[in-house]
């Protein structure tokens, strides 16, 4: 009530000036209303500007989300494609580059090259569409010359293009893999004899077996034992070996045992004359010699 009185002023006591006071009061009320309406308009304008700004920001945010959604879709597609070609996660280890193939007609060299390239594709996550071109980069010498000629024949003679890794692998084998590899290996096996150390014999025998695919286990064991020197054969039979892996492992131990005996014999001092040391050296060469 006190605030109303302060806003309207003192109430006139005389009747003559009531009309004047009422008019003045109406003017004050109108001024207050105008001021309030002005404030309302100001707030409405600010509110409209705020709504416009917020709508603009919302639209920008939606566009940004849409852009992120497209990027995520592309990334997801790439990851799925990588997973389809290789289920394993990409490795951070640096993948060593395979050694090139120079066209040497050697079965082991070609098979090793193809194996290394295959492992490289897997470790480096090479897409199927790039395997042929990448393999051609590791062909050197006669192999590179063959590849260039093959590409020229595609154009001049209308030969089909090599577009898949399996096709390229087959043509490399047809071109550079000897057709008589197994036969040559069998001929070499017939001539193989234990002339040096047992380890050298085991290594050469194992290398030949890689080129002979259809030999039975019994024949492998027979050929291995037949090429050994007599003392080695007797020691292995004494140990009761029955299969090739066990025989080759026992032969490795026998080699170390035999070489150790020979070295210890040659290093024996001849203080009591050479006859005793010589006799011990001869005894060490007998089958079944023990320390």
UniProtKB/TrEMBL annotation:
Domain Retrotransposon gag, chain residue ranges per copy: 134-229
Positions of the UniProt region annotated as Disordered: 264-291
Pfam families named among the record's database cross-references: Retrotrans_gag
Compositional bias segments (type: Basic and acidic residues): 269-283
UniProt name for this protein: Retrotransposon gag domain-containing protein
Organism: Vitis vinifera
